[in-house]
Amino acid sequence: MLDTQQFSVRLASPLETARGTIDAREGFLVRVETEGLSGLGEATPLVGWTESYEECREGLAQAERVAEELDWGIALGKLEAPAARHGLSLALAEGRAISRDQPLYRSLGDADRTVESVPVNVTLGADEPEALAKRARAAVDDGYPAVKIKVGTNGIEEDIERIRAVRNAVGDGVELRVDANGAWTVDQASEAIDALAALDVAYVEQPLPTAELSSTASLRGSGVDIALDESLATHSVADIISADAADVIVLKPMVLGGPDRAVEAAQDCREAGIDPVVSTTIDAVVARVGAVHVAASIPDVRACGLATGERLATDLARDPAPVADGAITVPQRPGLGIEEPPI
Ligand SMILES: O=C(O)CCC(=O)c1ccccc1C(=O)O
Ligand SMILES: [Mg+2]
C-alpha cells in the first residue's frame, strides 16, 4: 500500500539565490507498507531541479498502480521523475532499515560502522556585506566549520565585497564556499575566481550554467576548487568525471532520485578522486533526515549543506537530527529515527 499526503511549508527565512528566492516548499509525504515492511519517505519537487509538483503527484500515482499489479521494485525501476522516485525509494529504504533493526545510514552503507555526527556548513543568502559578516561570525561562534554564501545575484564586485567582509569577520581558519547557481559567464567566473582565490575561498558551486561541462573544466586549477550541483540534474557523475569538470560534487538526494542513487554517486565520486558533499533542496524533515543518513554513510564526508531545518517556519515532525556545535547528531534508532511520524 502507498499512502501519500500533500504538505506545504513556508520558510521563515527565505533563501535568496541567483535563480530566485525560495520561500516555500510543497510536496508529498509517502508511506509504503509491503510484506511486513513499513517506511516513510518524502517527495518535494523544485522546478529547475526536479519535475513539477503535478508530475511528481502523477509519478507517485503511477508507481502505486504498477506496485499493485507487479511489485515495488518494478515500480521503483520504472519511476523516472526524481522527486517522486526519491519519495518511494526513501520509504522502501526506511522500511528495510527498520526490518534489519538498523539506523538508515548503516543499512545504506557499512552495517558495522557507527557515525555519531556529520559536519555541516551554514547557508547564507545573498545579503549586504555587514549583515552577512555578522551572520557568518555568529555561525562560526556557534561552531560551524564552514560558511556557504550565495553569490551571482548582482555584480562580481559586490560579490567580492561581501566575501571579503565575511573573511574579515571570521578570520583565517574557517572554510568559505560560494554558490553562483549558474549565474556567470566564463569571463565573469574567471574574474571572480581570481579574487576569491585571494580570499582563500575553498570552492565555488555551479559557476556556469548546467550544460557547460567543458567550460567548467577550464575553470579548474585557478586556486578555487570547482563544485557542480545543478549539473547533476541533467548529467551523470560519469559524464562529469569524463569531462574532468569538478573537484567537488554536491549530491542532493531529491535531485538524484533517492538515497540509493546518492550513495552510489558518492562512491563513484570517491573512486574518481572527487569530494562528495550532501545537501538538500531545502526539504522538510523526512527528506532532510534522509539526506543526513546518506551523508553519514559516506566515510569522512566534508561539511554538508544540511543545516536548513531552522529556515522552515513549521515542519512536519520534530527534528531528530538537530545541529549542535556545527554538526548534526545522527539518529541511531532504526530507520530514519523520526519519533512520531506524521503518517
Ligand atoms: O547546500 C546548502 O548549503 C543548502 C542548500 C542550498 O544551498 C540550496 C537549497 C535549495 C536549492 C538550491 C540550493 C543550492 O545548493 O543551490
Ligand atoms: Mg548549489
Q: Briefly note the CATH topology name of the largest domain.
A: TIM Barrel
Termini separation comes to: 13 Å
The level 1 CATH classification of the largest domain is Alpha Beta
Report the portion of residues in β strands: 15-25%
The Cα radius of gyration reads 19 Å
Return the structural class: alpha/beta
What is the mean pLDDT? 97
Tell me which CATH architecture of the largest domain applies here.
Answer: Alpha-Beta Barrel
- Count of helices? 12
Beta-strand segment tally:
13
- The CATH H-level superfamily of the largest domain is Enolase-like C-terminal domain
**Global shape:** globular
Supply the number of structural domains: 2
Low-confidence stretches: none
Helix/strand order, N-terminal first? EEEHHHHEEHEHEHEHEHEHHEHEE
Bound molecules: 2-succinylbenzoate, magnesium ion
**Strand arrangement, largest sheet?**
5-6-7-8-9-10-11
Helix content: 25-40%
Catalytic activity: (1R,6R)-6-hydroxy-2-succinyl-cyclohexa-2,4-diene-1-carboxylate = 2-succinylbenzoate + H2O
Keywords: Lyase, Magnesium, Menaquinone biosynthesis, Metal-binding
EC number: 4.2.1.113
Function: Converts 2-succinyl-6-hydroxy-2,4-cyclohexadiene-1-carboxylate (SHCHC) to 2-succinylbenzoate (OSB).
